[in-house]
Amino acid sequence: MKRTRRESKNERRRLQLRIGIVAGVVVFSLVAVVARAYFLQVVKHDHYLARQQHQRSSNTLVHCERGEIRDADGGALAINVKGSALYAEPRRIKDGKRIAQGIAPILKVKPSTLEKRLSGSRGFVWLKRSLTPGQVEALKPWCEKEMGLAFLKQNRRLYPNRELAGQVLGFTNIDCQGQEGLERYYEKYLKGRQLYLEVEHDARHQVVDSSQHSELDYYKGKTVYLTLDRQLQVWAEDELERAVTESRARGGVALVMDASDGAILAMAQNPRFNPNTKLKNNPALWRNRAVTDLLEPGSTFKAFTLVAALESGLYKIDDLIDCEDGSFKVGRRTIHDTHKYGKLRLDEVLKYSSNIGCSKIAERVGAERFEAVLKDFGFGSTSGIDYPHEPSGRLRSWRKWRPIDLCNIAFGQGVSVTSVQLVAAYAALANGGYRVTPHLVSKIVSGGGWTVYEQPVKKLSVRVCSAEVAQQVNKALAMVVEDDGTAPQAQIPGFRVAGKTGTAQKFDFSEKRYSHKKYWASFVGYVDPPAGQSRKIVYVMVDEPRSSIYGGVVAAPAFQRINRRLISHLNYASEVEFADLEMPINEEFAKLKLKLQESEIVKDLTQSAKLMPDFRGRTIREALVLVGGYRRNLEISGQGRIVAQKPLPGTVLEPGLDFVFHLSSEI
Amino acid sequence: MNELRQDEKQLIENQDMLQAELATLKRPQNLARLARLLGLKEPRPGHKVVLP
Q1: Annotation marks residue A299 as catalytic
Q2: Which of A25, A98, A220, A543 could form a disulfide with A65 if both were Cys (CB 3.0 to 4.6 A apart)?
Q3: What CA–CA distance (Å, rounded) separates A230 from A76?
Q4: What's the longest Cα–Cα distance across chain A?
């Protein structure tokens, strides 16, 4: 019994000892944990916080989004889209050879090339900058599986209208930096700021998100609004292309400018250029020829000779000039006219485009005074257009002019201008004699919505000729498009058209003389708008036409077609009576008319017609189909769509009725 | 929160893509082609009325 008590006592002691040991261990552990926690959380707080931040985020250079380019109505011309790029961190890649062989077919590059890029200890290397969505899908498993291979979202420039105003807009490089055109000229506004921002990484050290920074919107590039009217630009490009194709020419330029302030509404060029695929195009196409290329203006320059004559006070508009029956000697050289003219009034010199008449005017006005007028109109100096690489043109000092040079310049030879310069000079004539500065940008708006630049509403203050002289020259320009002028094809029935043709020989540098095969054919002018609207100068230049060389034949029809669309677009015709419209029936139309008249189907289709429909706005084909069954006498005048009809709409139709349709071209 | 941020990011990207697609579809040449297919004609002089 005694033994039992002792044993139980010992056992209790052992138990107490064990409990004590366990409690000690627990207490010690707790103290250690608390101490360690204190050490980590309090003593080493700053150290570990910094380390955590370094692992999770870093300061990274962020390129803010590039600004957009929009047309006058806010339509997108150049925007940004997010694209994926593939990069690698070679120092983190373990088996470069295997990866290279795996992804090379997706990227369509040689495995050996990729392998070389993936080897080494570099921290970063691009594998492909712009991936297609298909390539991104195919590469996703690789990026998820392999360390050191990842995507990066990047902005890519997109020109949604493709070729539209391609040369005007220019393009950017892969890093979204402006390289050509407006993209280059307005680079400082368009480019987004580069900022060092704290961005978060994931475990693979990829940027999780950098778009959450509200500052990015503020620092993104500014939106540039152009003066271009997208619809007019389309028409100018289409009509220019038609003129170039029909005349089998090398190319061409078309411009539409508001004469009141120099705003360029359309700037077309042919061949066209798609900035989305810039590298697939010939670099020669990148150039905006309307601004950068010099050409001899030819007869379009004669309007300024007339201005010089009238401004000098030596001539009145009805003075007669003896045009010497088409041949006039200046020193050892002889100047010719295309037709023989005797005495012509000053305005007739322009109407018939007499070289001799202009030469005689210039001789009497004198070189110094003539040069001063040309300089006032902006020739020989840059026009100030907001576009890169504009040359000043070539207008030598009058002191260096020989007598023959003076005569040549009077009819547009021996002087070189850009298309923009010429159009700006005609704008001055059309607005009553004030100089304008051509421009393509109307305003620039920041990412925050602030207008940081706005084209100043310039008061027309620099006068280059008197209003009276401008009016007289404009009247003379209107005579050019008369039936016996040099450009009847520029006529638009119901509207007053004024303009001047130009047919300039190109200089052949290999033969060191003017070519007899290569010409610039041009037409520049305007249509008188309704009261309250400004004149719009339309210029068409066709380079090396082959069907005909004359501006009146090659360029004037394109001028007319652009203006027809412009008239409709700007609603010019609201004040014009359709009764004034008269146009000849062309042969093709006459054939169609006969064909339809003889058609049996026409008769079958018209049995149900009882009342005379309203055909106004419809084509003659539709009208003939419906009224064919009642046809006895059919009279059609004009071409295009029906604008007037007889019998009037609603008249009961009876056999034997006479039908009269008056058509006008689609304007 | 992370999911929502991812969703927002995705939606912004989608919006960008749709805007690009819209701009491409609204290309004047594209609209002209579709208008011709639908038998639409250009307005004649006086047909257009500009509302104040």
Answers
A1: yes
A2: A220
A3: 9
A4: 162
**In the Cβ-directed half-sphere of A86, how many Cα atoms lie within 13 Å?**
25
User: Model-level pTM?
Assistant: 0.76
pLDDT single digits (tens) A570-580:
877 544 443 33
The pLDDT confidence band at residue A328, using thresholds 50, 70 and 90, is: very high
A521 HSE (CA, 13 A, CB side): 29
CB within 8 Å: B45 and A82 = no
Strands A125-131 and A69-70 come out as unpaired
Annotated catalytic residue within A299, A446, A522, A664: A299
- d(CA A543, CA A505) in angstroms, rounded, equals 10
Round to whole Å and give the CA distance between A232 and A615: 29
Flag if A641 and B16 touch (Cβ within 8 Å). Answer: no
Distance between CA atoms of residues A573 and A578, nearest Å: 9
Q: How far is CA A256 from the centre of its chain?
A: 12
**Which secondary-structure segment (H or E) carries A538?**
strand A536-543
Helix%, strand%, coil% for chain B, nearest 5: 65, 0, 35
Token duo for residue A392: 């000043």
Q: Residue type for A447, please?
A: G
How close is the nearest chain B Cα to the Cα of A18, in Å?
51
- Two structure tokens written together for A118: 């993936």
Whether the link from the prior residue into B45 is cis, omega within 30° of 0, is no
Q: Touching check for B39 and chain A: CB below 8 Å?
A: no
Strand order in the sheet with A264-270: A264-270, A251-258, A536-543, A513-527, A497-508
DSSP notation for A157-223: EE-TTTTTTHHHH-EE-TTS-EEEHHHHHTHHHHSPPEEEEEEEE-TT--EEESTT-THHHHHSPPE
Alpha-carbon distance A168 to A610, whole Å?
Answer: 56
Which of B21, B24, B25, B30 to mutate to probe the A interface, most A CBs <10 Å? B24
Specify the 3-state DSSP secondary structure of B22. helix
Residues of chain A contacting residue B41, judged by C-beta atoms under 8 Å apart? 617, 666
pLDDT 10s digits, A198-219: 767 666 666 665 555 555 667 8
Can you tell me the distance from the alpha carbon of A440 to that of A425, in angstroms, rounded to the nearest whole number? 17
- Report d(CA A660, CA A663) in Å as an integer: 10
Q: Are strands A294-295 and A194-201 parallel, antiparallel or unpaired?
A: unpaired
Q: How far apart are CA A61 and CA A69, in angstroms?
A: 25
* Among A261, A306, A301, CA closest to A469: A306
In the predicted model, is pLDDT for residue A604 greater than 70? no
Considering only CA atoms, which of A309, A290, A292 is closest in space to residue A347?
A: A309
Distance CA A540, CA A487 (A): 13
